[in-house]
Amino acid sequence: MVQELKGNIRVFCRVxxxxxxxxxxxxxxxxxxxxxxxxxxxxxxxxxxxENAMGIERKDEWQFSFDRVFEPNxxxxxxxxxxxxxxxxxxxxxxxxVFAYGQTGSGKSFTMEGGSTEVxxxxxxxxxxxxxxxxxxxxxxGWEYRMEGQMLEIYxxxxxxxxxxxxxxxxxxDIKHDLKTGRTTVTDVAVVxxxxxxxxxxxxxxxxxxxxxxxxxxxxxxxRSHSVFTLRIYGENKLTGESCDGSLNLVDLAGSERxxxxxxxxxxxxxxxxxxxxxxxxxxxxxxxxxxxxxEGKGDKHIPYRNSKLTYLLQNSLSGNSKTLMVLNLSPLxxxxxxxxxxxxxxxxxxxxxxxxxxxxxxxxxSS
Length: 368
What we know:
Elements: H1 2-6, E1 10-15, E2 32-34, E3 43-51, E4 57-65, E5 68-70, H2 76-88, E6 95-101, H3 108-112, H4 123-137, E7 143-155, E8 158-161, E9 175-178, E10 183-186, E11 192-194, H5 197-217, E12 226-237, E13 242-252, H6 259-262, H7 268-295, H8 309-313, H9 315-318, E14 322-330, H10 337-351, E15 362-364
Parallel strand pairs: 1-5, 1-14, 6-13, 6-14
Antiparallel strand pairs: 2-3, 3-4, 7-8, 7-11, 7-12, 9-10, 12-13, 13-15
């Protein structure tokens, strides 16, 4: 309900814990991060102390607030609890989009895909499980649902089919938007009927293994590409004659580090990767900014969806006809402070954007 009143993109912020491999006796390793809001968990404060040439200490402090801030000790279940209502609304005929943003190593893939145990399961498998559960519960009210899924990777502005059998970067995939139904399709990709949450888990594992194979050729490719899992759901109610279709897009964005930090300058391939990532992430920022202006009443504002494959693919998820959530992931390391601040500023811009109110995609059986 809050989302429908606000009509904007909600933003959660999650700080990952320190990993065992990072533990050291050096206290200066961790960034100074505080969470002053013990009640609503909506605020995060970063600070940094430095000495100037005269030896005088100077302390800088940056405060940010979001719809929800998760501290390093928060569990996957706690994060999903906040997302679950949103995920479930695709069974009501809404388009839903959840995307993870942050630099490489900030915990995006862990948040979205999770680990191998029940406790560490990520947002994608949890969301899928919930959609199946809700679909099962609605059977008693006359609803029958069918679901299908696809998983794509966008790497160097090329779309790859992670559930397909073909070679990467070889096939040409085009993005098509149907203006009448508001549905987005991608040509020549595997769309798999989804029958159970466990089947989805094995599909995700297959997609991940295809991504990892590519990584051996292109040093750690997975953090250099965006992955987009789409679940489409079609519902029909024999008792009332209603039907609906919704979609759930779960996106793990590529690492957002700037050029000098990524070490890409001396390596031709890495340079191209980083430039393409930055191009698509800044295109995402431009689209969000343009939507914000449109939301402020500048009606004829051009929205530059076509500037990148990512924004064009997600056009219907960002166009105000969707419930959209961004999960900003942050590293707790002091050496990442500048990257963290860049991410926090971008997320603040996103959080202040009004994109219009999400609409249901449903109709009565006898209407077109």
